[in-house]
Structure formats: C-alpha cells, structure tokens
Write a structure and sequence with these properties.
Blueprint (H helix, E strand, L loop, with lengths): L3 H27 L5 H21 L1 H6 L3 E3 L6 E2 L1 H13 L6 E5 L5 E6 L5 E6 L8 H39 L16 H47 L4 H29 L5 E4 H14 L4 E6 L3 E4 L1 H17 L4 E6 L4 E8 L33 H11 L3 E6 L5 E8 L9
The protein binds adenosine-5'-diphosphate and magnesium ion (MG).
Length: 422
C-alpha cells in the first residue's frame, strides 16, 4: 500500500462504509413501525364498524367491552392525526367527528362521536414517530456529521503528512539553491519527489563548488602574468606612468587574493571559540574610522557567540566597508533579541535594485559600473561574508530601506556567556 492514490481510495472507502453502517443502524432504530398513511384507513373502517355496532345495540357493545363516554378522551389532541382519521372516515363513506389524543405518559386514544352525543373511546396502536423523535434525528445527524468530520480529518492528515514534509523542505531552500536532505520515505510519489529534490540539491551544490574552484583558479593563474607585468613595470622610465601601473597591479593583486580567499573560506574549518560580537564590531569600527570611513556605533549590547574570531572579523569588515563606501555612511548596532545575537548595519546610500538583491552574495556581483565611483573591489566581499556567516550557522540578509539606504543583518545563535573572551 505504497501509492498515494491507493491510500486515498482505501481511506475514503473506509470513511464511507463506516458512516453508512453507522447511519443505517441508527436509522433502523428511529424509523421503526408503519407509517400512519398505511394503518389509518383500515383502522377507520374498524372504528366505524364499532360505531355502527354501538348505535344498533349500545348495551351489547358495552358488555362486549366497548368504552362509551359522554366526552372524548382526555389528553393533548393531535390535530394532524385527528384530521387524518376524519379524512379516512370520509373516504370509507362513514363521515364522523373524531379525534385522536395522546396521553401525557404515552399511548394514543381515538374518540369517535356517536349520533346521540356520546363518544366511543378506544386506545389505538402508536401512530407516527414516537415523542421526541426529532431529538433522536438530531442525534443521528450529529453522529453522521461528527463521524465524517473525524474520519476526514484523520484521512487528510494521514495523506498530507508526507506532503507536508516536502513543503517544509521546500521552505528551507537556501539562497544558494540547496536544501536540507529530504527523507526518502512514504508513498511512491513522495519518495520519487524527495529523491529528485535531493539530487537537485546535490547538483546545485556541486555546481556552486566548481564555480568557486573556477574563481580560485582564475585568481591563482593571474598571479604569474601579474608578476611578469610588475617586473616590466619597474622598467618604465616615466615616474608618474610607472606609479600608475604599479597601483593598478596592486589592485589586481587584491582581487586575485580575495578570489582565492573565497574558496579558502569555503573549505577552512577553523576551530570554534566564544567571541564577543560587540567587541569585534567596536574594533572594526575603530580601524575603519581611522581610515576615514563614516561609520557610527549606535548601540552595542554585550553578545557572545561561538565562531572563529578572524573569519567573523573579515566578514563584518566587508559588510561595514560596503556600507561606508557604496552606502556612503553607516550606523551599526549589536543587539540580542531572544536567543540571537544580531549585528545590524544601515546606510544612507542608493541601496541595491530590488530585482538584483538575490544576487548580492554571488561572486563577482557588482552593480552597474557607471554607478560605482571608484571603489576598488571585484564583487567578492559579500560572497566571502556570506560564506563565513553560513559556516558558523549564522544568517545574513540584506534589504532596502525607505526612502533610501541598505540594511544588512547578520544573526547568530547566542553562545554561552561564561566562556566569553573579548
Ligand atoms: N551597502 C551597499 N549599498 C549599495 N550597494 C552595495 C552595498 N553593499 C554592496 N553593494 C553592491 O554590491 C556589490 C558587491 O559588493 P561586494 O561583494 O562587497 O563587492 P565589492 O565591494 O568588491 O564591489 C557592490 O559592488 C555594490 O554594487
Ligand atoms: Mg565590498
């Protein structure tokens, strides 16, 4: 019973059969006895024979056990049944005044008026549904509805369980296109889908890795021709020209370095230590402001996380430099809402076009060169920051602010304070 279709069919079948069996059982309890339409006419005929008998010989009728009273039987008159009886009497050709009443403690009595003003009073068999029948009906309907609802909910949750697993997995697809391993269990369709998702995730991962290797290889291979160029540049006679060449080569060197650095971040597994996020941020801000960058600290709550100090410093430095250069001026805070430690960097720059936000963490992502004044870089800073933050199970997000500026959020799980080491 591995296919979803078969399971669905079986569950629905069980539900319907159960409901029908239950309702039929209750119906047989409620709908006992013949309907009055069937029994009324023969009874009317019997009653009119008795009436004729009483008219012809009252004494004999009484001695035979017939009750003759001056008034109809006491009790609540059943208007519907009374009319029904009179209609039946009329149809049998003996129209008479008649009434059917119900005794408070059960029992139905028919009274038939004789021409002399007396009444024949006679108990008759129960007609129509028993008193309180509607309560039984309501109970019956309630039972059907409750039963169906319970079974449907059970069936739906049974069917949805594996689907929900896939839903949860898809919700966890990371910005890099990979997703956590989906268990390949359950009905056939789900297993096939889970396997496909896992393969897809593995392929995306492999593609990302080979791209990273490509980046590093390019950085590495640039080194040799750059060394030769530097040598040649040293022989340039014109001083100004030579210095320009050397400065450009210096920048190329930095780019090649960060390209190799990206891959190094990806594979490096430096040990975890308890570090104070607020202290690290304060140090970077001091370092960058002395270089002339416009960065302000707004709030630094003491927050300890478990990560590699050098790597985290590199990541946050990249983000802060971006905010102070591309973003013009930056304000940074360290807070710890709940069990998280969060670094928030906001700036007053142009932000990043909404449709390109999802690409900021890709290697070599840079926005339209015309927009960039002369900020050196190869578009690797964010990619490196992302690589580092993910490695320490942190999360990094960017979004545009209104009316302008970019907000960069880096969140980590809080580590234990006891081991804190600045
Ligand atoms: N705070 C920011 N405000 C506006 N644009 C930004 C900001 N941070 C990054 N960017 C854009 O994202 C690109 C990639 O940034 P990054 O990976 O650090 O590379 P780089 O700084 O070397 O160009 C930048 O070139 C810039 O266009
Ligand atoms: Mg940068």
């Amino acid at each position: 019973m591995k296919s979803l279709g078969a399971r669905l069919a079986l569950l629905l079948l069980t539900a319907i059969v159960l409901v029908v069996i239950t309702s039929s059982f209750v119906a047989s309890l409620v709908m006992r006895g013949p309907r009055p339409e069937v029994t009324m006419e023969p009874m009317a005929r019997q009653l009119s024979i008795l009436a004729k008998f009483a008219e012809a010989d009252k004494a004999a009728a009484i001695s035979a056990g017939l009750v003759i009273a001056p008034a109809p039987a006491a009790g609540r008159r059943d208007d519907g049944l009374s009319d029904f009886l009179m209609e039946s009497l009329r149809r049998t050709g003996e129209p008479r005044e008649a009434t059917i009443s119900r005794k408070p403690r059960g029992g139905t009595i028919a009274s038939l008026r004789l021409p002399d003003g007396n009444w024949i009073v006679m108990p008759i068999s129960e007609l129509g549904p028993p008193p309180g029948g509607w309560k039984i009906l309501a109970g019956w309907l309630g039972l059907i509805i409750t039963g169906s609802v319970l079974i449907s909910i059970f069936a739906a949750s049974k069917i949805m369980k594996p689907l929900r697993l896939l839903e949860r997995a898809s919700a966890e697809i990371g910005p890099d296109g990979t997703l956590p391993h989906v268990p390949e269990t359950g009905p056939g369709e789900i297993r096939v889908t889970a396997r496909a998702l896992n393969e897809l995730s593995a392929r995306v991962k492999a593609a990302t890795e080979s791209r990273m290797r490509l980046v590093a290889a390019a950085g590495h291979d640039l080194r040799t021709p750059m060394t030769r160029m530097r040598l040649r540049a040293e022989f340039i006679k014109d001083d100004e020209d030579r210095l320009k060449w050397l400065a450009d080569l210096e920048e190329l060197d930095t780019i090649a370095d960060s390209a190799i650095g990206l891959v190094r971040e990806e594979i490096s597994k430096d040990s975890l230590q308890c570090i104070r996020l607020d202290t690290i941020v304060a140090n970077i801000v001091t370092e960058l402001t002395t270089m002339g960058m416009d960065i302000r600290v707004s709030e630094l709550q003491p927050s300890t996380i478990s990560a590699g100090r050098l790597a985290i410093t590199r990541a946050l430095r990249n983000l802060l430099i971006n905010a102070a250069t591309h973003g013009e001026s930056a304000v940074v805070t360290v807070t710890h809402p709940g069990d998280k430690a969060v670094v928030t960097i906001v700036d007053t720059g142009p932000g990043i076009p909404e449709e390109r936000l999802s690409q900021v963490f890709e290697p070599f992502f840079r926005i339209d060169m015309a927009r960039q004044r002369s900020f050196p870089g190869a578009g690797l800073g964010m990619a490196i920051a992302k690589e580092i933050v993910s490695r320490f199970e942190g999360e990094i997000t960017v979004r545009n602010r209104q009316p302008r500026g970019l907000e960069q959020l880096v969140a980590f799980k809080m580590g234990s304070d006891k081991l804190a080491a600045g």
